[in-house]
Amino acid sequence: QSYCHRLQHDMYFLTSTSRLNEQVVDKIVLQLNRVYPQILTNEEAEKFRNPRASLHTRLSDLLKHLQKKGDRHCQEFYRALQINAEQLFNDLPSRKILKTPDPTEIDTDKEQYMLNDRGPVFFLACFSVAAGLALFWYCCNSETRVIGRARRILGFSPIIIGRHVRNICMLYLEDISRN
């Protein structure tokens, strides 16, 4: 993505109220005026530092002017912004898009907190209810084919449930299959 497109994408964010104060904008303009290669001429720098015009107007005009000049000028603006207002530079919408490889990707840090806010006890309780309902469904169904499946599942589960519980369940299933 070119710096001009990034600047167009960030323009609303930068010109919104109280993002950049007058001192920071003046520092950026002076840096663009004094840096090699000179991005802004002396007349342009005075125009964008004019205290008679509102800060919003000056900043909007500066950004539009840089976009017309080309990609190199926009890149120098980003460099000046990074030097003079690093926190704002890091919060730019275009920077957040560049940090994530896929813009549709879920922010895993936030998602991790959303999934884990209930703790392991909640997970075990839900899992136990689901396993109990599945066992109940297999055991209480009138079809003998389902009872055979339940017998196979319970026959291979001495690790999951204790041997005594497994033996009781197996006896229960045998009684049901005889009836």
Automatic annotation (TrEMBL):
<keyword id="KW-0496">Mitochondrion</keyword>
<comment type="subunit">
    <text>Associates with BCL10 by CARD-CARD interaction.</text>
</comment>
<dbReference type="InterPro" id="IPR011029">
    <property type="entry name" value="DEATH-like_dom_sf"/>
</dbReference>
<dbReference type="InterPro" id="IPR043574">
    <property type="entry name" value="CARD19"/>
</dbReference>
<feature type="domain" description="CARD">
    <location>
        <begin position="38"/>
        <end position="96"/>
    </location>
</feature>
<keyword id="KW-1133">Transmembrane helix</keyword>
<protein>
    <recommendedName>
        <fullName>Caspase recruitment domain-containing protein 19</fullName>
    </recommendedName>
</protein>
<dbReference type="InterPro" id="IPR042146">
    <property type="entry name" value="CARD_BinCARD"/>
</dbReference>
<dbReference type="Pfam" id="PF00619">
    <property type="entry name" value="CARD"/>
</dbReference>
<keyword id="KW-1015">Disulfide bond</keyword>
<dbReference type="InterPro" id="IPR001315">
    <property type="entry name" value="CARD"/>
</dbReference>
<keyword id="KW-0256">Endoplasmic reticulum</keyword>
<keyword id="KW-0472">Membrane</keyword>
<dbReference type="GO" id="GO:0031966">
    <property type="term" value="C:mitochondrial membrane"/>
</dbReference>
<feature type="transmembrane region" description="Helical">
    <location>
        <begin position="120"/>
        <end position="138"/>
    </location>
</feature>
<dbReference type="GO" id="GO:0042981">
    <property type="term" value="P:regulation of apoptotic process"/>
</dbReference>
<keyword id="KW-0812">Transmembrane</keyword>
<dbReference type="GO" id="GO:0005789">
    <property type="term" value="C:endoplasmic reticulum membrane"/>
</dbReference>
